[in-house]
Amino acid sequence: MREVAVVAFAQTRHTGYDEGLTEPELISPILQEVRRATGLTRFGFTCSGSCDYLAGAPFSFVSALDAVGAWPPISESHVEMDAAWALYEAWVRLQHGDVDSALVYGYGKSSQGDLREIMTLQLDPYYLAPLGLDQVSYAALQASALGAPESELTGIVRRSRADGRANPYALDLPDPADEPAGQEHAVHPLRPIDVAPPTDGAAAIVLAAGDLARDLAERPAWITGIAHRAEPHYLGVRDLARSPSAAGAARAAGVGKGPVDIAELHAQFSHEEVILRQALGLSSGTVVNPSGGPLAANPVMATGLIRVGEAARRVMDGTARRAVAHATSGPCLQQNLVTVLEA
Amino acid sequence: MPSDHPPAPEESSAESLVAEHVLEFPGGYTRTTGPVIGRFLTELREGRIVGVRTAAGRVLVPPLEYDPETGDPVTGEYVQVGPAGTVRSWAWVGTPRKGHPLDRPFAWALIELDGAGTALVHAVDAGTVKAMRPGLRVRPRFRPEAERAGHITDIACFVPEVSTMAAPIRTEYRVRPGRSLARFLEGVRDGVFLGGRCAHCDKVYVPYRTTCPECGSTIGEEVELPDTGTVTTFAINNLPDPRAPQVPFVSAYVVLDGADVPMIVLLGDVPARDVRQGMRVRAVWVPPEERTLSMGNIRWFAPTGEPDVRL
Ligand SMILES: [Zn+2]
Question: Under the GO molecular function aspect, what terms does this record hold (chain A) (predicted)?
């Protein structure tokens, strides 16, 4: 495998409301930031992740190219998924050996519509979507199948929100104890605090191969393992309390081959962290979601890419020697992508 | 650090602009079911629930085309299951949403029907959350036969084998114009067209924008453009449109004088057959006291009578 590393990462200061920016206006500053950080203005490959249903406009991702600078023509691709999968595509593209750098970005404005209902549209159109099974409802079915103690879940929310308050890019959410009393369940057993906050935001990463990576970063975050696994779509054929696909991706990426200093997990509901820790085989010595994770900021379609960026940032600044980033897509952790980053 | 509350916008500023936008397939999107799902839906319309057997002998309910364990096609053997089943896990909806199957509190549940090797996702009308528990025995309540249509929610229709179904899609959004368009509309309110000049490419873009689509650099310089220009291409539309003066109407690309890219505009005060490439046109504005933050300030573009420009 060709050596590929994360050499730059930028993200917006995510908001829990619509700032009134179009998607190109949202991503332009962070693209400028990674261009400045690397000194690169052109990239061998560009790949983005977003979801047209967030804006309700077909091919809305094409307009985002305005912020990229696509003339003379660039080599470009897009995934209708979280941009972590765009990073995966870029990593594969760099394995071809003919280009040495790639720009990856993702963005999402949850504020424009109702995310719970928009996510219904990703379900199969025969058996699930016609029921109106919304995102929080199917997550609640998974939380129910897992049956984790409420105190454990509250602890995950408390830690995530505290870390988020210390993260200048994440939202400023109160300690669970300071939430107004007597709130109704979102969908039992999920409480409103167990659900990631609707968030607008974007992120960008630059990948570079071999010597270019060494030139561009003092301490590149080398991708030493990356793998993606999926499970059946229909919820009733799965054991929702476990994530064999996350476990399989972790095994293929080599998570267990060494100690993991930090892990950034794409857990949009508190119970998902419990399932993922177990699936990835993380020990108590691993710090989970030091950024606050998705429970502190969830700009969908960038959230998974931010996990890679936050993990890489800590390898690049020397606070971690070996870090793991996880991204997910589909209902109830259906698809999982695991990346191992090392100094 | 960012908060989760927006700052209050000033009233009547462009910051307060917001529009309603709906994405919808009126009447629902037509989907073919294929033989496996079609068989399940056809049986459902008859008031029966069937699963399909995999090569390993597991009965999948609802039937899938491929065995999720092996990826092999399922056998052609359909097995009637249930109708009763057992709740394996459940989640309680205290406040139903408009897309939900029930308008009163209910449970979502994974239900293993008698004879099935998998669970079916559906709603349980249990009255109260206290009635829900894993292991709860449940039975389907079919809609009256005349209302069944071969749909997972069992809506009415008649007999031929099911081959299509409706998948309704309607989601609502609140969209804002963004800073570039908002700035442009401020110009339009004041009777001028604002463009942006890319210092790097030396090109002027209109409507105003903050990044150059050619090189991607930030556009810093705002330029005021005249309301005259030249038609580069046009189309004659024969379907009515609420924004158009009459049918047929003409939409055209007009390059404003001093701009490098065309704007799409309506043409008026001219018969459609007389419109041509190179024709000189000028914006027809509504009176100043009627102007708002809207493209409605420009009725259309009309010929100036100057000689045509050679393109
Ligand atoms: Zn330019």
Answer: acyltransferase activity, transferring groups other than amino-acyl groups
Q: What is the DSSP letter of B292?
A: -
Comparing C-alpha atoms, which of A140, A129, A243 is closest to residue A186?
A: A140
Surface-to-core class of residue A342, CB atoms within 10 Å of its CB (0-12 exposed, 13-18 middle, 19+ buried): middle
Q: Does the CB of B220 have a partner CB in chain A at under 8 Å?
A: no
Contact A132, B100 (CB under 8 A): yes
Q: At what angle do helices A135-146 and A270-280 cross, to 10 degrees?
A: 60
CB contact under 8 A, B91 and A118: no
Architecture of the domain defined by A1-343: 3-Layer(aba) Sandwich (3.40)
DSSP class of residue A161? H
A62 touches chain B (CB under 8 A): no
- How many whole angstroms separate alpha carbon A156 and alpha carbon B169? 35
Residues of A in contact with B171 (CB under 8 A): 53, 56, 113-114, 117-118, 121
Contact A56 B37 (CB under 8 A): no
Burial classification of residue B101, based on how many CB atoms lie within 10 Å of its CB (0-12 exposed, 13-18 middle, 19 or more buried)? middle
Judging contacts by C-beta atoms under 8 Å, the chain A residues touching residue B63 are none
- Give the residue on A whose Cα is nearest the Cα of B22: A56
Ion ligand 1: protein residues whose beta carbon lies under 5 Å: B 198, 200-201, 212, 214-215
The HSE-up count of residue A135 (CA atoms within 13 Å, CB side) is 19
Q: What is the pLDDT of residues A301-314, one digit of tens each?
A: 999 999 999 999 99
- Name residues of chain A where pLDDT drops below 70: none
Q: Residue B279's pLDDT is what? A: 97
Domain boundary assignment for chain A: 1-343
d(CA B41, CA B47): 10
pTM of the entire predicted model: 0.79
CA distance A283 to A250: 14
- In this prediction, the residues of chain B whose per-residue pLDDT falls under 50 are 1, 155-163
Q: Which two tokens stand for residue A296?
A: 């502190």
* CA pair distance B92, A184, nearest whole angstrom: 11
Q: How far apart are CA B234 and CA A103, in angstroms?
A: 38
> Is residue A25 within 8 Å of A64, Cβ to Cβ?
no
CB of A18 within 8 Å of a chain B CB? The answer is: yes
pLDDT in tens, B36-58: 999 999 999 999 999 999 999 99
Is A130 in contact with B173 (Cβ distance < 8 A)? Answer: no
The vertex-A51 CA angle with B165 and B8, nearest 5°, equals 115
Predicted local confidence at residue B4, as pLDDT: 63
Listed in sequence order, the DSSP H helices in A81-149 are: 83-95, 115-118, 135-146
